[in-house]
Amino acid sequence: MQKDVIKKIVFKKVEKLEQEIRETPYHKGTEHYLGLLKAKAAKLKRELGEKEEKSSKGGAGYGVRKQGDASCILIGPPSAGKSTLLNAITNAKSKVGDYGFTTLNVIPGMMFYQGARIQILDVPGLVTGAAKGKGGGRKILSTARSADLVLLITDTERIDWFEKAKEELYQNGVRLDLSKPKIKVVKKTRGGIEIIDPFSSFNRETVISVALEFGLKNAQISFGEPINSIDEMIDVFAENRAYLPCLELVSKADRLAKKAKTLDQRIFVSGVSGEGLDRLKKEIWQSLGLIRIYLKKERTKEPDFGEPLILKKGGRIEDITAKVSSELTERRTAALIWGPGAKFPGQKVSLKHPVFDQMIVSLVE
Predict the structure, then answer these.
(1) C-alpha distances in Å from residue 101, one per residue of 96, 112, 117, 280, 324
(2) Is the pLDDT of residue 218 over 90?
(3) CATH code at position 169
């Protein structure tokens, strides 16, 4: 009871700050003041999240162990067809019903695609006010933070839900289809606040005030790009933001006229008829940025094309060592490569060499 009372007090403080932010017009003269208000609200939210994680054995979200090569979370309103879709694209057997809140806990399923094992998590329906805890929403939103991809799903009659869901996720520190702002904060033991901003994004007083609000008294703050919003700067100081790719799915597509589907960039799917499922799997694969690596355990043998090693785009050959047994990687200091990324078959490269989709690799001494 005492914890609930504390939460309510904190939320009241946040609401008061957010109301003042809304009522304060933005211009150069109010930039400093608004920055301080937003920093105070962000700090209160962060502290509340930290307390919730400490008080929960499994963390603030559902305690589900990540499995497979990547993890996706299905987020939608109650009775949006999430469970039907999960059953259609994975090995799960989620309970399905034509009434709200069929799913009362998180249900994992495993999707197999291009040799990858992709975990799909079906969570309870998300309702308006989730970021403030309504309908167990903070638990759902916190689970999203640990995923690699967010799948927002609604049915054909609630298309406007997408924007509502994005706002709930934003309020809980989840940034969809955005990159982390290029602001580097290096904490120091002395010297006060040093600001390196060749783009003149904000005045010095604003940056210092926000930093102090987050307890930074000595630090070097370097801007690597123009920052257009105070919110972006605060996100860096808050240190608890999750930047995730997102796909928008419209379920029950079998009930919608074909013409209506061609007017939208979203993915129309039906777990009943199977419509759009092939496209969905392909889009999930691409959004996760996964690639296939085929290992040759011996130079003379053919690789096993049936079981590729799954890595992320932008990785290096040295990342293979974290995925395979020590017997294969012990004393290996270089690699022979074939296919994409190789200048010629069997090229010898260092372990720092980048990896590409469908590259064949043989680790050597």
Answers:
(1) 10, 27, 27, 24, 41
(2) yes
(3) 3.40.50.300
